[in-house]
Each structure stands twice: as C-alpha cells, then as structure tokens.
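BUG: 3D viewer hangs when loading the predicted structure for this chain

Environment: internal workstation, default settings.
Expected: structure renders.
Actual: progress bar stalls at 90%.

Input used:
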Amino acid sequence: MNKYPLLSKLLLIGLLMALLAIPLALVRQVIAERSAYRQQAAAEVARAHAGPQTLTGPVLWLPYTETFVRKVKVEGKAGATREELVSEERVSVQFPKTLDTRSRLATETRWRGIFPVTVYTSQHANTGRFVWEEVMPRQPGGRITLGQPLLLMGVSDTRGLLAAPQMRLAGSALAVEQAPASSPLPLAARVDPGLLKPGAELEVALDFELAGTGGIGWVPLADDSSVTLTSSWPHPSFGGDFLPRTRSVTASGFEATWRVSSLSSRAQSQFLEDPRGDSPPSHTVEQFSVSLNDPVDVYRLTERATKYAGMFIVLTFAAFFVLEMVRRWRIHPMQYLMIGAALVLFFLLLLSLAEHMDFVLAYGLASTGCIALLGHYLRHVLGGWGAGLGMSGLLVALYGVLYGILVSEDNALMMGSLLLFGVLAAIMVATRRLDWYSVMRPEPVPASPGVEPHSA
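Structure tokens produced before the viewer hung:
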C-alpha cells in the first residue's frame, strides 16, 4: 500500500463506490415497490368508483334481414340449376352528421392509506343531427325486412353513470337501457321505426353525468365532431390521436376544444371493422383524451434522482480526493464510506418525506439534514469549521444542481453536461501546480523509536 499511495487510494475509493452501489440498488427497489403500492391503491379506488372513461356515440344501429332468390347447381345434373330462398341478417350503422359535446369536469382527491388518487365527476351535454339513409338491398331483387332500430352510446365503465342518461331523438324522449349482447356498445334506446324515412333529419340530444378516475376520452364517430371540456384541474395532459384545436390552461383550471372531421379520422371505418362488438371499440378506434395525472410524481422524481446518484457520489469523492491531494488532508477510507452512506441515505429520506408533503419541501428537508450532518462530521475530519463549511458549500451547490435537473427534464442533459464540465475545470485549476510525481512517491518509512543507526 505504501509503495504506490496514489494508486492504492484510487483503488480503495473505486471499491467504496462499488460497495455503495448495493444500497443504491436497494433504494431503487424500495421506490419501485412504493410506486407499485400507489398503482394498486389507484386500481382499488377505480374498482370502487369507476375507471378511466372513453365516450362513444351515439350511433344509429339497425339490424335487418335481406331475403333474395339465389340459383344453385343441382348435383348430378350437368348445367341444371334450381332456385332457393336465402335470408341473410345484416346491420346498418349510421353515424351522426354533426355532434357537439359540452362537458364540465370536477375533480376530488380520494385517499387509500397515504396514497392520493384523483377521481372526477363530469356532466355532458350532446347535441347532434342524423340524416337517415335508406337501407338498400345488396342482391338483385332482394327484399329488406327491418328489425328494431336502436340508438347506441357507450362509456368504458358503466358503473360511473350517476343517473340514467337523458336521450331525445326528433323531439321524443327515449328510455336508455342495457344494449343487446350483439351490440358493440353497452347502452341503447329503442327508436320508433316510423322516424326512419329516407332523407329525414333527426335531431338528437343526450345528457348524462359520469364519474371516473385518471382520465377521460372521446371517439369521434360523427362526420363533424366537436368537444369542449372545461375543468378546474390545473395540470391536464392531452393525449390520443388528436390534440385540441384550442386550449387555455391556468392555475385555476383549463378549457380545451377538439374538432375532428371524418375526413381526417379513421374512427368510423375502424368501428365498422368490428360490427358485432367482439372487442371493445374504445381499445382499437382512434380517440382523443385528457389525463388528470399529478405532474409532480414523487416516485418518478425520486427514481430520476437515484439515476444521478452515482454521478453525485463520484463528484463528491472526486472533490474530497483532489482537496486531499492539494491541501494535504488525510481522509481515511472508512470516512469516505460514511460520507458515501450519508449521500445514499439522502435518497431514501427524500422518498419517505415526499410521500407526506410537497416534493420541494421534502427535498429541502432531506438535503438540509444531510448537509448539516456532513458539515458537522467534516468539521472534525478536516480539523476545523472553515474546511467543514467549505465542503458543505460544495454539497449545497451539488444538491441545488440535482434539483434543477429533476424539475427541468427537458434541460437535464444540458445541466448535467455543464456540471461535469465545471467540475473538470475546477479540478484542473486546483491541480495545475500539483507535482503528481511527488504525490505518487512512496511514503517514507519512519524509523523505530529507540533504534540507533548502525555505524561501521
């Protein structure tokens, strides 16, 4: 160890950093477990309340039977044919020409243990217009027999309906009930077949209240779909296949308006690909949505912080090592280990505090506690308050930069690169006059007390 002191010290510091990777991995595991518990809590609230909602419809759904005569070959008689009467069951789906939706959404927080879950209630007022197109036979000479026409609508989780939807078609009130099993949407209202005259314009109105969790979306099935959503939630996250045409987000809430034409959307054709509803349309059809997730996700931020923990420890150890060389300090490897342990403990402390208070306050308390502990410890390790406060100032700067990286995800790479460049520049300036050969010389072996030099 004394033959190559510099190399030996570097190897010991490298070994300590490798050992500190073990508790860091355990901290990351704790973060993953707590995040899973939070997701489980959200799923439990959604089961008791209602899950994320996707609104579909209304659409006109008309089952019918087409009867026609078909010629078939007679077996055993070459060229002979006979006629048979064939009946085929089909469905005509007609979408609204226009559909305008006005929605309001109010949020509240439900708690499952220490985990908050955002739920909402919403009111929806829909007005639209159908133009009925006559169902034409597909086979020559075919005869159409109409079944019971239905006006269908869908929500992802019907438990969220706070009352029966109020539906009117051509001025007549319709009773909404559960749809037949063959329907692709869960709710239906029986329509008077007498209203379905070729070219008839049918005004539709649909009002209902809906509860949900996490987010809400719409499937634009009308030829011209328009949705305006107003809410007091200040942190919306817009997603799906279409973004709002206009939106206004303030600290008191947001208002967003979507306008989607059937010329720019494949929603109608995608809906028709599964006419019997063998798979939920909301899972495959184009849609737009808004999520109500909390932007300050303490688990995501803490996980991101641990990704920079290795760099954090390397920079701290590098500062101590360089100052040890320049100032001739003597810091024992065990003291390096305890300093590193305090740096690792910061991330666990940050997680535990952030679950009970705002992230910025938790970060401030955790970093202040660790800096105070290390400052007091370094005062004795380095032999005075001056050196201890100086190193504490370095830690304050590092914690400040780490927080800036966490809250500014878009600028994280730039800030990290500038930090590394600044540290390298500081090390080069601090060691510009250091004689590394003298540092690398073996330490002189002190003579044993009481032993006189041998004289010839």
